[in-house]
Input
Amino acid sequence: MPGTHQLADLLQALKERSGRSYSALAQRTGLSRSSVHRYCQGLTVPASFGVVERIARVCGAERDELDRLYAAWVRAAAEEPEVPEVEVPGPEVPEAAVPEPEVPEAAVSEPEVPEPEPRVREPQLPDPQAPDPEEPQPPSLDAKPPRRTSPLLAAALALTLITLAALAYATFAPTPKSPPKPQAQGPAQQLSGPDWHMAPQKLDPAYFGMTMNTDTGQTPDFRVGGLRLWDGETRWGQVEPERGEFEWSVLERLVEGAERADLPVLFTFGGTPGWAAPDSPRTLYTDGTRTAPPDDLADWDRFVTAVVTRYQGRIAAYELWDNVGASSHYSGDMRTLAEMVRRAARIIERIDPRAAVACPSFGGLWEREGQELLREFARTGAYDVCDAAAMKLHPRRADGPPEEIVDLARTVQDDILYGEGVGITLWNTGPGRDIVTRPALDARRAQDYAVRFYLAGLLARRAELSRMYFYSWGGTRVPLVVQAVGGAPTEAGRRIGRLQEWISGTRITSCGRGERVGLPKGVHECRFVRGNGKEWRAVRWTRSGTATTELEPGVSRLHHLDGTSEPARPGERIVYGETPVLVEYGAP
Output
């Protein structure tokens, strides 16, 4: 249905541009999350254009975009088939008592996960050496609302259904004295296909984020998609050194630099001023900032208001604290943090409703203590007011394989957030504080890690990971330097830019690995299509070691991260390794 597909594509594009999750759009439009998801995916068409307009305006649609949406909605509504349905009357049930089932944002690729058991479950740490779980299941599609029919027909249907239900219960209901016997465990199902697959979708450029470790206002000389401001002398205590007295020069310089580069900014709050929490422990920074919330939350309200008012329309998103779980960054309790989040979200929504809100980033997530702290925060309900959940997703060790990010993302999303009833997209805002204590990577490993950091985020897309902020740009006290301020990009930095050139103008469709996608064991792959889909390309690499195979039919060219490329023919032998390679198919 061309009209339905066009309407869905327009809505999905607005959603991605806004940076808001389905949950956030649902909260701001008064619709259910599953309804917003269905409309953006083209599964159903809204009954009125008013619903489309509500979603579009929350996403910041302009007048011409609303006009295109209206034309697409008219065509889509005309394509909707008239399917007669009946409604069986019954006792009225309060709306709140029957919650609408939630449909995951990536319903076409995400497996259904059963509700957690009521007993308390010990958190399970992922084993990076174990294979990833693969549980493909068909998507869940909601039916359209029933239409009313005549009372007599409805009554007849009701009586028929009641009779059938009674017969079914009498026939099939188990008795307490005869429980079914458990069946013996057999071999696991043999599956084929990628870890996740979806309709071709353009990647949001902001996915390729970079944390700035400089106060100069300079930006990377290689391609990135967005800037995160932290460790650039913009902590709260530095911007407001005395109550009501603001020093904007550094923050202004950084925002102006981002504007010159046409890059969206994520501003990160943190570092309470000494005057706002004089009895609190100090942070590890030398600026006198503190780790606890302010003694009076009205000081927090005034600071958030001042920042958002000054940078309305200039800062695209706000992260509401950095690295919770590290005592060097936050030493308060979760109830107070949740209250700070709610207050800030209300202020941002009132002053700059187009800005996205990311709940505080949590660290220490490889450890049980960090996981339990995240659970505690999730139980406060504060994620309901956020568009994204910031997390510190990184390998167990700074020199570990980047693909361990996938394991941690799944633990956070599936075992923790989903278990607490939270459905929200993840933003990876970097490693923990101990990154500065790790030894430097050698040149080859640095080059591979820099690129595979972003590829690992694509592998974790089914865990709702939608942004990656590399740590960091400008500084040299990290194991992997992409560019020092005033110097040229390292080869690692240049390869980050080259990865984006590889997939520029494409739409991602899937990621998978090994024999399930027709590749040797241990080879990862993410696929992208171009144009009408007849041309496609795959980025392939291994987590460790090498694997040799033959190139498939349709191959036309190989591209390497050093900037070289060469023609390729089907049947040629190729060795995949820890350095990603681009394999191009279709027209050369």
Remarks:
- Confidence is low (pLDDT under 50) at residues 82-179.
- The chain has 14 helices and 17 strands.
- The two ends are 32 Å apart (CA to CA).
- The longest helix spans residues 151-172.
